[in-house]
């Protein structure tokens, strides 16, 4: 049985006012070709299907069009909700998608057994079991631990996630002992390498999950949330597929991939990464005004889609001339055939202190995280370290409530 693991499509993502729609469309076309050439039986999408809880109708159309194409490929699809997704939005077409062999688990189920998806062969035998665990929200974890008292919220969350997987592992061990089993998850695993495009989850990532929470009954763990592909806990069978396209400039060097699993019998899983072609280059040019100007002149990208470029101009001392020259340079390349300058900033080293670094010329509000801004504000108060820390913890808790759609 062949299974393809992907995650974090983030349909609707906009990077500095530029939609990343075209590369996603290209990715979907490419994915269909891989599904057919590799004869994939099951496609797993581990959360963050959409970038926003309330995507535009065009973005929904892109999603449904792709699902309808998938349904022609004669495979089973399992989609789980991520921290960016709205549970209701994903679950709404659940019944109709079920008839197309597309299983959707938007949020944690009242009855945990409903998260187990047995996948049958044409003959009706169960060939694979998927523990389709979506992003677990605070309320999912708290309700199940009412009889336990934890010393803090971090521990409660961590234990809640662990219990959730343990319960599923126990059911698999008793009901499906000899059948290959895959667990899905949308979480922050300890030791994972992040980029700039993930939104912090589970208490500012402090409730990091140990890879040891996944029972060996799971032959593979298909994770989502972290946008860089990686192996977790040195276990080749616990992986983040990463996002299929670069979602931020910090991912410009990443080799994006999907993971093809070949499951012969239980415990016999071969994992083969398949590189996603780069449809668009993200490029950053850094240096003095002169150097950056030179680099732009010599830049001739050759990708299907126009490159996105970020400029960082560093000059030793303040010079207002430089600022107007930078603006003129950006204007000059407007409408270029080869690339779009998405953002630029100018930093004058002289007189710049660490704290003022956040607010250099051309600094975009999108580059700051809410916690950056909150910390900045806290710096203006004279608070005892303990109090400052509790303020930060409280802020993170509120932030998560605001950012997590029910
Ligand atoms: Mn994500």
Heteromolecules bound: manganese (II) ion
Instruction: Briefly note the CATH topology name of the largest domain.
Output: Purple Acid Phosphatase, chain A, domain 2
CATH superfamily of the largest domain: Metallo-dependent phosphatases
Distance between the termini: 35 Å
Mean pLDDT across all amino acids: 89
The major sheet is characterized as: 6 strands, mixed
CATH class placement of the largest domain: Alpha Beta
| Structure classification | alpha/beta
Q: Can you describe what's shown?
A:
- The protein is α/β, with parallel strands linked by helices and 406 residues long.
- The chain folds into two domains: 2-275, Metallo-dependent phosphatases (Purple Acid Phosphatase, chain A, domain 2, 4-Layer Sandwich), CATH 3.60.21; 282-403.
- Helix content is 30%, strand content 23%.
- The chain contains ten helices and 17 strands.
- The protein has helices at 21-37, 57-71, 87-91, 94-98, 138-143, 153-175, 289-297, 320-332, 370-379, 385-403, and strands spanning 2-6, 14-15, 18-19, 42-46, 76-80, 102-105, 116-120, 126-131, 181-186, 220-224, 230-232, 235-240, 257-263, 269-275, 282-287, 307-315, 339-348.
- The strands form four sheets. It has a six-stranded mixed β-sheet. The protein has a six-stranded mixed β-sheet with strand order 7-8-9-10-12-11, covered by helices on one side. It has a three-stranded parallel β-sheet with strand order 15-16-17, covered by helices on one side.
- A hairpin with a 5-residue loop joins β7 and β8 (126-131).
- It is globular, with a radius of gyration of 23 Å.
- Manganese (II) ion binds at residues 8, 10, 48, 82, 84, 198, 225.
């Amino acid at each position: 049985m062949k299974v393809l693991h992907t995650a974090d499509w983030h349909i609707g993502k906009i990077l500095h006012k530029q939609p990343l729609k075209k590369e996603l469309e290209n990715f979907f076309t490419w994915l269909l070709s891989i599904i057919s050439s590799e004869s994939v039986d099951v496609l797993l999408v581990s959360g963050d299907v959409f970038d926003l809880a309330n995507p535009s109708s065009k973005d929904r159309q892109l999603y449904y069009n792709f699902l309808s194409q998938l349904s022609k490929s004669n495979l089973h699809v399992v989609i789980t909700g991520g921290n960016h997704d709205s549970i209701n939005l994903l679950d709404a077409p659940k019944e109709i998608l079920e008839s197309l062999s597309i299983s959707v688990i938007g949020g944690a189920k009242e009855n945990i057994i409903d998260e187990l998806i047995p996948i049958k062969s044409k003959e009706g035998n169960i060939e694979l079991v998927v523990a389709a665990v979506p992003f677990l929200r605070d309320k999912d974890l708290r309700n199940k631990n009412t009889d336990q008292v934890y010393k803090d919220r971090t521990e409660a969350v961590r234990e809640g996630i662990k219990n959730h997987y343990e319960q599923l592992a126990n059911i698999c061990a008793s009901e499906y002992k000899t059948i290959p089993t895959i667990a899905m998850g949308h979480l922050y695993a300890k030791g994972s390498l992040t980029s700039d495009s993930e939104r912090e989850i589970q208490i500012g990532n402090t409730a990091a999950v140990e890879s040891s929470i996944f029972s060996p009954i799971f032959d593979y763990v298909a994770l989502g949330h972290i946008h860089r592909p990686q192996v977790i806990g040195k276990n080749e069978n616990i992986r983040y597929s990463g996002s299929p396209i670069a979602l931020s400039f910090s991912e410009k060097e990443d080799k994006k991939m999907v993971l093809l699993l070949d499951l012969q019998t239980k415990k016999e899983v071969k994992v083969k990464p398949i590189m996603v072609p780069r449809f668009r280059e993200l490029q950053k040019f850094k240096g003095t005004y002169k150097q950056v100007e030179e680099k732009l002149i010599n830049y001739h990208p050759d990708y299907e889609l126009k490159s996105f470029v970020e400029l960082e101009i560093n000059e030793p001392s303040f010079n207002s001339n430089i600022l107007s020259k930078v603006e003129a340079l950006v204007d000059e390349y407007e409408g270029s055939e080869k690339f779009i300058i998405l953002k630029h900033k100018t930093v004058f080293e002289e007189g710049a202190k660490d704290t003022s670094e956040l607010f250099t010329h051309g600094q975009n509000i999108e580059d700051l995280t809410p916690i950056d801004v909150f910390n900045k504000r806290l710096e203006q108060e004279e608070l005892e370290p303990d109090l400052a820390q509790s303020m930060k913890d409280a802020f993170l808790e509120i932030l998560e409530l605001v950012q997590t759609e029910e």
